[in-house]
Write a structure and sequence with these properties.
This protein has about 300 residues and is an alpha+beta fold. It has six helices and 21 strands.
Length: about 300
C-alpha cells in the first residue's frame, strides 16, 4: 500500500511537470517579451449581407487559425471572435511561419470561406507584422443569402406539409429521391428496425433517413425512406424558420413562429454546454415529426429533421 501511495505521488508530480512545461512553452511563443514581435491578425472585411444573419449567429461567430514556425514546428493557435470584430494582437518569436489552418468555425450557419492574404511570412525583431485574412467566397455568400430569404410560399406553408425551401426553391420531401441523388457507397444490410442516414451525393448538408421496416435483414437500397436531415444553412422551414435562428423565436408559446413544442429531448438546460437539446413538434393526425437540434453551448438551431409517420 505504501508503494502504491508513492507511485501515485510520482505520477502526480510528473503530470504537473508536463502541464507546467506546456504552459511555459505556449507562453514563450505568445508572451509579450522584448524579443517578441507584435502581430496584428484581422479579417479585412465582410460582405454587406453578413448583417442579415441572426444576431446570435454573429455573436458566436469565430475564425480559428494555426500559425506554424517553419524551423521549430511549434504552433500558435489564434481565435478571432465576432465580439472582438475579428481582430487580435498577439506576440510571437521572430522567425519564418506559415498559416497551416484557417477556418470559419460554423459553416452550417455561415457559409463563409476565409483565407490568409499570405500563407507564409517572416517575423523580424523590432517590427510589427500585419496578418490579414479575407473572405474568399464573398460573391457566392451574397448569392446564398439572397436565395435563403424565405419566400411568401414557405412562410404560408403549413408545418406538416412535407415541404421545405432550399436555395429559393420549394422542396417536396415526398419526392426528395427524385430531386437529389442518394447512393450509399457500400452494399449494406440493415437489421430489422435499423436506421441509417445517406448524405446526398451532390449537395452538402442534406441526408436521407432510411429504415428497415421488415422482420428480416434488408438491403439498404430497399429500405423505407422515413425522413430528411438538414444541416445546410440554405434550408428554410415553414413559416420562415432557418438554421441559425434563436430557438426563442420559434418555440415561444405565445410569440414563437411554431408555438409551444410537443416535447423536448436531451439537456433541459439550453446553452449550458451539457449536451444537445432537441425541440420536437409532432402532428398527431399524420404522425409526422419536426425536430430542431440545438448544440450544447448554443441557443440557435443547428439542425432540422423531418420524419414521416412516427406516431409517438
Amino acid at each position: 500500500m505504501v508503494h502504491l501511495k508513492k507511485l501515485g505521488v510520482y505520477i502526480i508530480i510528473i503530470c504537473a511537470s508536463l502541464w507546467l512545461a506546456g504552459c511555459q512553452k505556449q507562453a514563450a511563443e505568445t508572451s509579450n517579451n522584448d524579443e517578441d514581435v507584435m502581430c496584428k491578425v484581422y479579417l479585412e472585411s465582410l460582405p454587406d449581407e453578413y448583417a442579415l444573419l441572426p444576431d446570435n449567429v454573429k455573436e458566436d461567430a469565430a475564425i480559428t487559425i494555426t500559425l506554424r514556425n517553419l524551423a521549430t514546428n511549434k504552433r500558435v493557435y489564434v481565435t478571432l471572435s465576432g465580439e472582438q470584430e475579428f481582430k487580435k494582437e498577439i506576440y510571437m518569436l521572430p522567425g519564418s511561419y506559415e498559416i497551416s489552418y484557417c477556418y470559419w468555425d460554423d459553416k452550417n450557419s455561415t457559409p463563409l470561406e476565409v483565407e490568409p492574404r499570405n500563407s507564409e511570412f517572416k517575423l523580424i525583431r523590432g517590427e510589427t507584422k500585419d496578418i490579414p485574412l479575407y473572405v474568399a467566397n464573398s460573391e457566392e455568400f451574397t448569392q446564398t443569402m439572397i436565395m435563403n430569404r424565405p419566400t411568401e410560399e414557405i412562410q404560408e406553408t403549413g408545418l406538416f406539409t412535407r415541404k421545405m425551401q432550399y436555395k429559393g426553391k420549394i422542396l417536396d420531401l415526398n419526392k426528395i429521391k427524385e430531386i437529389y441523388s442518394f447512393v450509399y457507397k457500400e452494399d449494406k444490410l440493415l437489421l430489422p428496425s435499423e436506421r441509417l442516414e445517406i448524405p446526398a451525393n451532390d449537395t452538402k448538408g442534406i441526408s436521407l433517413i432510411v429504415q428497415n421496416q421488415t422482420s428480416r435483414a434488408q438491403n439498404i437500397t430497399e429500405a423505407t425512406v422515413v425522413g430528411v436531415h438538414f444541416i445546410n444553412s440554405s434550408v428554410v422551414a415553414p413559416r420562415g424558420v432557418t438554421l441559425g435562428m434563436d430557438i426563442s423565436e420559434v418555440c415561444h408559446s405565445e410569440t414563437g413562429l411554431w408555438g409551444k413544442p410537443t416535447s423536448f429531448t436531451g439537456s433541459p438546460f439550453i446553452g449550458t454546454g451539457l449536451s444537445d437539446t432537441t425541440v420536437v413538434y409532432l402532428d398527431y393526425l399524420t404522425g409526422d415529426k419536426l425536430s430542431l437540434v440545438i448544440k450544447p453551448e448554443e441557443r440557435h438551431i443547428a439542425e432540422m429533421i423531418y420524419e414521416f409517420e412516427v406516431y409517438e
